[in-house]
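Thread: Newbie trying to understand structure tokens

Hi all, I'm a second-year student working on a class project, and my supervisor (Dr. K.) asked me to get a predicted structure for one chain before our next meeting. I've only ever worked with sequences, so writing a 3D structure as a token string is new to me. If someone could post the tokens and maybe explain what I'm looking at, I'd be very grateful. Here's the chain:
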Amino acid sequence: MSRYIGLIGYPIKHSISPFFQQAALDYYQLDIRYKAWETAPAQLQDIVNDLRKPQNIGANVTVPYKETVLPLLDEVDELASSIGAVNTIVKKDDRLLGFNTDAYGFMEVLDKEGHFDPEGKRVVILGAGGVARAVSFTLVQRKVASLAITDGIFERASALAENLVSYNKGTSPSSKGLKSDVNAFQWQNLSSAKTLDNCDLIVHCTTMGMKDSPQEGQSPLSLEVIPKNVLVYDVVYNPWPTPLLRLAQKAGANMLGGLPMLVYQGAASFKLWTGREAPVDIMFNKAKEALTGGKG
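---
Reply by user tm_fold:
Sure, no problem. This is what the structure looks like when written as tokens:
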């Protein structure tokens, strides 16, 4: 009997996860199918409960459910609980366990592809959803000097900033440890170049500019406000390059796209489901092929 892993999100037409995850499963000749389960909000509870069926192994969770899925699970690991977002569900016996591999994927790319050490740096985060939560908590752990968060809904940004301040205070005190200065600001302030002056890293964590999204073709920043030599990291991977990264390139900024993060977080999820080391090179090759081939 074939077993199944699914991708839970809405919409998910743009996703290439099924292509590279299936390639990894096939590499080990596992009789497991990775499926895209587009899930309308009213279906979420039923789809998550269906994971308990014998043929199902687990799931990835994507926009917009990384936060709302938490109460539907039996247990959430410490990192995902601190972050307040889950992107990977693993069925163990009859229980559904929640994990966050976005944090790992984000830092792997920053270290390996961006060669960027966040300690002591000034960072601006665009967005305050599930991915932004993982990114923000990871950066605080890596001792950024400052973290400024904005979102189209200011209350979300403010709530995330408050969570991070509380988390910051709760970490084990170290005389040499930096305490990150965390604050939230209004989205409208992004129209002023002064807002991004002196920052070292901008991370875009909304769906703006994403293929098949309501804001396809749009950028959260205009050309004029992007500082030269800043690192712009757009977690959106489809299309490549995104509207934001096109502008970043024109502005003379450095760029990181979302595809490597997608693959690295997917590789960490793969290991949680199967207990095997993910064939990362195969996953990368298939992801690039799916993206450039226009699949999904």
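A couple of things are worth pointing out once you decode it. The first strand starts at residue 3 and ends at 9. The chain has two domains: 3-100+260-292, 104-257. Feel free to ask follow-ups in this thread.
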